[in-house]
Amino acid sequence: MQVEDVLLERAAASADKEAWERAGLLAEEAVHRIWDRLHQGKWNDVDPQWRQRFAIACELLATSYLHKPADAGNLNNHETAIEILDTGLLMAGPYGRHLHDTMDKIVADVDSSSTTDSTHPAKKTKTSVGVLPPALTPNLTTDSPLCTSLKRVKAPSLLEFKASYMTQNCPVIITDAMDEWPAMGKTHDGRRHWANLNYLCRVAGRRTVPIEVGSSYLEDNWSQTLMTLHKFIDEHILHPPSHNAPTGYLAQHALFEQIPQLRKDIAVPDYCALSVRGRQDVDADDDDDDVDDVVVNAWFGPPNTISPLHFDPAQNLLCQIVGSKYVRLYASTFSDHLYPVPGYLSNTSQVVVEGDGAQANAVQFPRFLEAPYWEGVLGPGEMLYIPPRCWHYIRSLDVSFSVSFWWD
User: Fold this and answer.
1) What are the Cα distances from residue 45, in Å, to 37, 61, 99?
2) How far is CA 14 from CA 1, 23, 24, 77, 84, in A?
3) Which 8-state DSSP code applies to residue 402?
């Protein structure tokens, strides 16, 4: 039996006896040990049982905080428990789904306490929205003979979308297909509009999320950190760092698995039921939430967050909820013009599309200047269809919240 298993068994036994102080100490030791296990070698090679054990240890540790006497702790015991559970959810992934039940109970307790206690930490999840950073101007290059403006179509039928765009590997901007999403603010009297930062803070402000720090994952100064969504909004959205300081970005995160309440504000587009790889299309009349194998990720950040030129292997619908983004796309047939990074990042280009670094392209990457491309600005309520292996570069023009849907 592994040492970690012994610790978990003893922690669980102590919890059964209501010996929560001892249970917490044992669970904390297990958390530290299993954390080290999870960070040995490649993440994909980690035995799922360790992720399962980590979730169990986090649940025991979080619950121990709820049993601390008031005079032995402070008002942040519930907040600490939430942070521990979020760490468990982030690291355990699908092996930690049982943590949602415990999380829901704690969040409900915090919400209930905050309605009657003005000093409760939950009150801090409301933010004062001042002046948001100004929007940036897109550097459109429509006068270039290599540039084609992205076509916009109004909510095409499934047949039209598949025949005209999916089977042709042709990107397109789709309008008028997201109006019923509560996140867009056109329903429910706008109460669930994601442009309302107070709403986001109320629903998810105390939750811990992974934040990318730096201009791009290709840069040496790029890193990742964990912080509450409220802190991210305060430090990177409302009060962004100085021009030379690194930008924070909540990027490509399975936020809606972590916080199901936000998942209720969006819907899987019907287009995700379609396939061009030989499998039968899903019946679009079925509940869109039942479409299998759709990977849903959140992208939330201040102006000038960048996704460097890269491609993904799956079908992709990038749905813009708040703010606008400049987008540029290159067909996969021009991959040899885009100078992929050697090695495991071969789906990413070495080329700097915009900014000071782009001045060196003529010398370093001359064939890039010969590649035709599509470009446009993706606005609120619009979806961008990105075909598989279609290279794309994206830069936010203002405070932006997008949701991507990937499927085969």
Assistant:
1) 11, 26, 23
2) 19, 5, 9, 20, 19
3) E
Question: Is the CB of residue 87 less than 8 Å from the CB of residue 58?
Answer: yes
Residue with tokens 């899903």: 282
The string of pLDDT tens digits covering residues 317-344 is: 999 999 999 999 999 999 999 999 999 8
Residue 118 belongs to some domain of the structure: no
pTM: 0.89
For residues 247 and 213, the answer to whether their CB atoms sit within 8 Å is yes
Report the pLDDT value the prediction gives residue 281, as an integer from 0 to 100.
65
Residue 304 lies in a domain: yes
Going by pLDDT thresholds of 50, 70 and 90, the confidence category of residue 192 is very high
Query: In three state form, how does the secondary structure of 89-102 look?
Result: HHHHHHHHCCHHHH
Mean pLDDT of the chain: 90
pLDDT (tens digit per residue) in 133-168: 788 889 899 899 999 999 999 999 999 999 999 999
Instruction: Give the integer Cα–Cα distance in Å for 153 and 139.
Output: 23
Nearest in space to 175 (alpha carbons), one of 407, 399, 376: 376
> What is the C-alpha to C-alpha distance for residues 132 and 360, in angstroms, rounded to an integer?
33
Q: How many CA atoms lie within 13 A of 133 on its CB side?
A: 26
DSSP 280-340: PPP-TTS-GGG-TT-EEEEEEE-TT-EEEEE--SSEEEEEEEES-EEEEEE-GGGGGGS-B
Residue 215: count of CB within 10 angstroms of its CB:
18
C-alpha span between 147 and 331 (Å, rounded): 12
Residue 288 has a pLDDT of 47
Domain extent, residue 168, equals 147-273+293-407
Which of 79, 121, 107 has the alpha carbon at shortest distance from 260? Answer: 107
pLDDT at 286 over 60: no
Residues 99 and 153 in one domain: no
Judged by DSSP in three states, 385 sits in strand
C-alpha 91/C-alpha 224 separation (Å) is 14
| DSSP assignment letter at 341 | P
Q: Is residue 217 part of a domain?
A: yes
Residue 168 and residue 69 share a domain = no
pLDDT value of position 121: 46
Note whether residue 129 is domain-resident.
Answer: no
CA distances from 283 to 22, 54, 286 (A): 53, 38, 6
